[in-house]
Amino acid sequence: MRLTKYKSEMKKLINGLIILAWLGMQIQDVYGQRIEKNKTYKVIAIQDGDTYDILVDKTTMRIRMDGIDAPEKGMPFYKVAKQFLASMCFGKMLRIEVKSTDRHGRTVARAFLSDGRDLSQEMLRAGLAWHFVKYSKDKTLASLELAARKQQVGIWSNPNPMSPWENRRLHRKG
Q1: Which of 95, 106, 110, 125 is catalytic?
Q2: b vs e for 115-137, b when ≥16 Cβ sit within 10 Å of the residue's Cβ?
Q3: CA dist., res. 56 & res. 96, Å (int)
Q4: What is the pLDDT of residues 99-135, one digit of tens each?
């Protein structure tokens, strides 16, 4: 009887330690590399139309752009979105405002060019991303997507573009 109780208590302790370790990693992902307010960071790589890498204290940090979702690899406008983002920020210094960490461990952030322009807004204005309403209620982003749709620029030149989240859902189903 005591052995069963001991095993049960040990299992609870181990599960608790696992949860604490996981929470610690989540906090480390956002704050461990010390993104500081009013400091700028150099963009060193572009992953796709909504993800890029910056240099923080000689370490690479992956940034997922807040509030938008750009075409996935293999989708129409994937390369155009990636190239546009690169032309906007590759090799440049950005001011980063961390919002959260996503389920893949990436830092989700808004980024601003030296002239104050918001990269998420610029991607929407160019018609190269969707407003990611599942994670963002930003009215400015919503209105920029609507304006791009009306002007039929970028992805909106296609009469019925498939959203990245729909594309991912279909690929998961197989």
Answers
A1: 106
A2: eeebbbbbbbbbbbbbbbeebbe
A3: 11
A4: 999 988 889 999 999 999 999 999 999 999 999 999 9
Q: Mark whether 64 is an active-site residue.
A: yes
Confirm whether 106 is a catalytic residue: yes
What is the tens place of the pLDDT at every residue in 78-98? 999 999 999 999 999 999 999
Tokens 């610029």 correspond to 122
Backbone angles phi, psi at 41, to 5 degrees: -135, 140
Respond yes or no: is residue 72 known to be catalytic: yes
The alpha carbon dihedral of 155, 156, 160, 163 has a sign of: positive
pLDDT at 30: 44
Select which of 9, 36, 72, 97 is catalytic.
72
The dihedral over CA atoms of 115, 119, 122, 126, expressed in degrees to the nearest 10, equals: 140
Q: 34-173: what CATH class?
A: mainly beta
Mean pLDDT of the chain: 88
Q: What pLDDT is stored for residue 6 in this prediction?
A: 66
Q: Residue ranges per domain, the chain?
A: 1-32, 34-173
